[in-house]
Amino acid sequence: MSNVTVCARFRPLSSKEMRDDRDGGVCVRGIDAESFVFQDDKEDEFTFSLDRVFYEDSAQAAVYEFLALPIMRDAVNAINGTIITYGQAWAGKTYSMEGPGIQDCDEHKKGLLPRVVDGMFEQIRSSKDIARYTVKLSMVEIYMEKVRDLLDLSKGNIQIKENKTQGILLSGVTEVPVSDSTEALQHLCTGLANRAVGETQMNMSSSRSHCAYLFTIHQESVKDKRAKTGKLILVDLAGSEKADKTGAEGRVLEEAKTINKSLSALGNVINALTSGSPNKANHIPYRDSKLTRILQDALGGNSRMALVCCCSPSTSNASETLSTLRFGMRAKHIKASPRASEVKSTKTQEEPSSETKDEKRGRILEKMKERMSKEDIKMLEEVFIQEGIIFSPDSMEEVDAAYEDTVSKTIISLQQTVEELQLKVKELEAENKGIKEQAFGNLEYDRLGKMSRFISSWYASLFTSA
Ligand SMILES: Nc1ncnc2c1ncn2[C@@H]1O[C@H](COP(=O)(O)OP(=O)(O)OP(=O)(O)O)[C@@H](O)[C@H]1O
Ligand SMILES: [Mg+2]
């Protein structure tokens, strides 16, 4: 069992923070590469220790090498990985993820995403004698609780599905095959241009949505044709913000409320995952937001995960920084147990197949999807819905949700009943013991009485006979 890698990253003071706070007040004092002292609004001091702390002069390359490179390497070897940037608005999440731009930016300032793309194709190149790789890229944003396909804006409400073998899936999302880093970066740029951005007093170009970059890395061994797949997801979250600080109103306020709600849902999932007894089934509210649902596999442990807690170093943002750090500390306790994806043989038909029913169905459907046009699939789906063979995607999602929630609630209520029964049994045992003791006492008393009566009558008979 390995834990989640959690790092803190402090950006330099912004010009606004320097202007607003004449002393240039800073709430963080570094101790070393893993610990620092944080001072809150009341000047109370707390020492935090995380996997790594990146201070304002840390290089983008250092962040990449410490937390993203190992996860990227594993994903190329079919172990799923997730990298998330978290923090209040204007804390440096997008800067850490992308840098000032995806393409043509200063080499030193390049963010995690372009570095991951370069590193991934470099590793694939160096392994080309061992395996043949195909990489597919998808990009979505969660805006106002809708999952939008950033590579095809006509898909404005992508449904999230769950498959026994593949885990969480984005139904019908665009997956573009990418063969090198230049091609991948071009697609990423197109997608990013479609991202929803807003303007607040905190940030001139604030991310108004959570953005997820998904890479599916499929490999087929040259030697025995065995195939495996790794999923790598990078998530640039939208920032939490207080409306009074940002001056948000109207649509921007609505966006902020939705962002805050989904971030609270993320906090609730992490709380549920890190509290309670490990042997007890705990209801994890993944379905409370699209964000937690998409991240279900990563948060649930079937993925390596790294979290960059982006923070402002300014005393004026101390309370937000403290809450970001507490979130990171909590996430550190999530237990992760990532596994290499199931290895499937792509050998010839004559060989005995170890394919399960689900896998076989999935493979046939994939093949059909490749052969059929989008229109064919749509028409088939319409016929199936009409005939009642399948539910419409919306109701399917709802049925799934209701089923899973009911199962989980039933398990929890059964556990409560068992606990109550155990308590009752203990109470009854104690009561029974009392009754037994009393009964035993009475019995003894009775026996003693009988014995003393016998002795006195025997004693009396001695004298009578004498
Ligand atoms: N480590 C850093 N070094 C230099 N500048 C930084 C650093 N981190 C952030 N910045 C700058 O701070 C500003 C805010 O950063 P960014 O846009 O990444 O914040 P954010 O957390 O994504 O905000 P939002 O939640 O509003 O999207 C930007 O101007 C960015 O260039
Ligand atoms: Mg941002």
Largest sheet: 10 strands, mixed
Number of strands: 19
CATH superfamily of the largest domain: Kinesin motor domain
- Mean pLDDT across all amino acids: 84
Helix-strand category: alpha+beta
- The CATH class of the largest domain is Alpha Beta
Radius of gyration: 31 Å
How many domains make up the 3D coordinates?
A: 2
Distance between the termini: 91 Å
Query: How many helical stretches?
Result: 13
Give the bound compounds: adenosine-5'-triphosphate, magnesium ion
What is the CATH topology of the largest domain? Kinesin
Pfam families: Kinesin
Keywords: ATP-binding, Coiled coil, Microtubule, Motor protein, Nucleotide-binding
Binding site for ATP: 87-94
InterPro entries: Kinesin-like_fam, Kinesin_motor_CS, Kinesin_motor_dom, Kinesin_motor_dom_sf, P-loop_NTPase
3D architecture notes:
Residues 341-362 have a biased composition (Basic and acidic residues). Keywords: ATP-binding, Coiled coil, Microtubule, Motor protein, Nucleotide-binding. One of its GO terms (cellular component) is microtubule. Residues 411-438 form a coiled coil. The structure is a single chain. With 466 residues, this protein is α+β, with helices and mostly antiparallel strands. It has two domains: 2-336, Kinesin (3-Layer(aba) Sandwich); 390-466. It has helices at 15-20, 60-76, 93-98, 112-126, 181-193, 243-246, 250-274, 290-294, 296-299, 318-331, 357-371, 374-387, 393-465; strands spanning 2-3, 5-10, 28-30, 35-39, 45-49, 52-54, 81-86, 131-143, 146-149, 159-163, 167-171, 176-178, 197-198, 206-207, 210-221, 226-236, 304-311, 335-336, 344-345. Strands 2, 6, 7, 8, 9, 12, 15, 16, 17 and 19 form a ten-stranded mixed sheet that branches. A three-stranded antiparallel sheet has the order 3-4-5, covered by helices on one side. Helix 2 (60-76) packs across helix 4 (112-126). The longest helix is centred in the C-terminal third of the chain and has 73 residues, at 393-465. The chain is extended and about 125 Å long. The termini are far apart. Mean pLDDT is 84; it is low at 199-204 and 345-352.
